[in-house]
């Protein structure tokens, strides 16, 4: 429910629980990244974009971009230093791009997480107007949502 403040720790714990059922016991790279993220959240430390890249990666490789996208979404729940925008979707994209590396991949995933959480009303109109095939994407999203309830 996006009207309530996101509990980042609960979010990570739920992801970790799901990932533990998916990954093999001997090879758990995503679980390892989520555990590292959990430890950072427990310490209430906000990583800088550079530290995010160092801890979770910033390349095109999924293992080095998915955790970064997740952390970017979580980090953008709070105000960012030297960035005044109050829209958490825009903050998510901004932070993800600030990490550097494969920014289009990471920011796209982070933005998708934010949009899934907040709904597409969070995306400013001027951003939607610049997106190619926005109508087709919205239609596909509606169909996916309907299919998830079947």
TrEMBL record:
This enzyme's EC code(s): 3.2.1.143
Cofactor(s) essential for the protein: Mg(2+)
Catalytic activity from the UniProt record: alpha-NAD(+) + H2O = ADP-D-ribose + nicotinamide + H(+)
Name of the featured protein: ADP-ribosylhydrolase ARH3
GO cellular component: mitochondrion; nucleus
Keywords: Hydrolase, Magnesium, Metal-binding
Chain residues that bind Mg(2+): 102, 104-105
Co-factor binding details: Binds 2 magnesium ions per subunit.
Family: Belongs to the ADP-ribosylglycohydrolase family.
Top-rank lineage group of the source organism: Eukaryota
GO molecular function term, any single one: metal ion binding
């Amino acid at each position: 429910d996006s009207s309530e403040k996101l509990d980042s720790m609960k979010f990570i714990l739920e992801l970790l629980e799901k990932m533990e059922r998916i990954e093999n016991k001997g090879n758990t790279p995503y679980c390892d990244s989520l555990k590292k993220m959990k430890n950072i959240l427990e310490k209430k430390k906000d990583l800088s974009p550079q530290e995010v890249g160092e801890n979770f990666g910033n390349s095109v490789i999924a293992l080095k971009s998915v955790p970064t996208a997740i952390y970017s979404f979580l980090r953008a729940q709070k105000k960012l230093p030297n960035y005044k925008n109050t829209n958490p979707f825009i903050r998510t994209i901004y932070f993800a791009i600030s990490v550097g590396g494969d920014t289009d991949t990471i920011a796209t995933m982070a933005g998708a997480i934010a949009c899934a959480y907040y709904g597409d009303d969070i995306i400013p109109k001027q951003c939607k107007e610049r997106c190619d095939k926005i109508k087709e994407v919205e239609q596909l999203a509606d169909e996916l949502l309907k299919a998830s309830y079947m």
